[in-house]
Amino acid sequence: MQVRRLSLTNFRNYARLELDLPGGVVLLHGDNAQGKTNLLEAIYFLATTRSPHASQDQQLINWDAMQTDDPVVVGRLVADVLRPDGPRHLEMRLIVEERGAWALNGQGSFRREALVNRGKVRLMDLLGHLRVVLFLPEDVDLATGPPANRRRYLNITLCQVDADYCRNLSTYNKVLEQRNALLRRMAEGQTRGAADVLQILTEKLIEPGSRVLQRRAVFVTEMARLAQDIYFQDLIGGKESLRLGYLPGWAANGRQGDAGRANSDQLLRDGDWLQANATPAAIAERFAAELAAARPADLARGASTVGPHRDDWAIVVNGKNLGQFGSRGQVRTAILALKLAEIGWMKATTNDTPILLLDEVSAELDQHRRAALLAHVVEQVRGKGTAQAILTSTDPGLFTADFLAEATVLAVREGRVSRD
Questions:
Q1: How many independent structural domains does the chain possess?
Q2: What pLDDT digit, counting tens, does each position of 200-237 carry?
């Protein structure tokens, strides 16, 4: 898979950009705040419909465009994608209207439009046409940050390859929102007829929620095997073992310590029932029982306290939860193994190599781990006509002459890209 051409209009610091990209390894270099990361963000956004950096899509619009008197401002991200099964023309439009109201109270009109081969589609239907694996320095938060970070990682990765998972997740979230709204009303005393509706919404949660749980369990199991091989053999020379443990939402709800994090032994034990071979029917039975048991707590809190929206998983090295007990070096090495495993998993699942996006990751690694990462990157794209890796760096000196000889080197300065 490869982005052959990227076109940006009013996106971040790019008022207008038309960029042809070659296959293989591409190195973008330049000082900070010149637009290197914005290029990776644009490709990632087209692949996932999400930004890895912005909390609101409105933040992606070029600032200068927002200062004009134009009644409507449109940010456009367009990519021509080369895939083994044929080309794709992908577009995302970020449309800002009623900017006077926006300036006064932040409540102006904003909408997104997605197009595939110039035809409008639902945002969900944009997923899967472009697949990426993103490396960021802040990926350490997957181990050390809150569970929401890890759930977001599961959802973004799985939605790129599994449309059924994405549909089930969307259905679950919609019903969950309705159930939580009802629970809030019941907590405020609006109980007339609410019990029957609550039972209906609870039953509607079970099927999509069970399928989300089962798919996540399969993914964690498959990733654990791949990550262990990379970590044990390639990165630390057989000195430590790495496992991934899965903690379903009901275990996360009531079996953690005061710090809000499960210890690794408990996490692995509670996750044992949810193996890759667990059927949706068996999971649905357990989920239904847990929802029934949690009903008093849900009513008291005015919110749903069990389910996939409460899931967690952990990286466990030598039997210890890395997020709690790992050194900084261990965490970085384990996350690197996880990301490299993600490449292999996505390739095996789709029979196509995803585009690798690496944002200033080399500067965060020591020489040994940097060499292992770059060797893996080159191996993934060498000799494969549709494979592509795009890296950013403020210092090309971090890369060996052999690596640079394999790469196309582009300079980024003030929102302009040129061959170095």
A1: 2
A2: 999 999 999 999 999 999 999 999 999 998 887 777 77
Q: H/E/C letters for each residue in 247-284?
A: ECHHHHHHCCCCCCCCCHHHHHHHHCCCCCCCCHHHHH
Which residue range(s) make up the domain with 7? 2-129+407-419
Predicted confidence (pLDDT) per residue in 74-88, tens digit: 999 999 999 999 999
For 79, half-sphere exposure in the C-beta direction (CA atoms, 13 angstrom radius) is 25
Tens-place pLDDT, residues 174-193:
999 999 999 999 999 888 88
Total Cβ atoms within 10 A of residue 394: 14
CATH number at residue 269: 1.20.1050.90
Q: Is 13 in the same domain as 162?
A: no
* Cα 126 to Cα 315: distance, rounded to the nearest angstrom: 31
What is the spatial distance between Cα 245 and Cα 243, in angstroms, rounded to a whole number?
A: 6
Its pTM stands at 0.90
Residues 160 and 67 in one domain: no
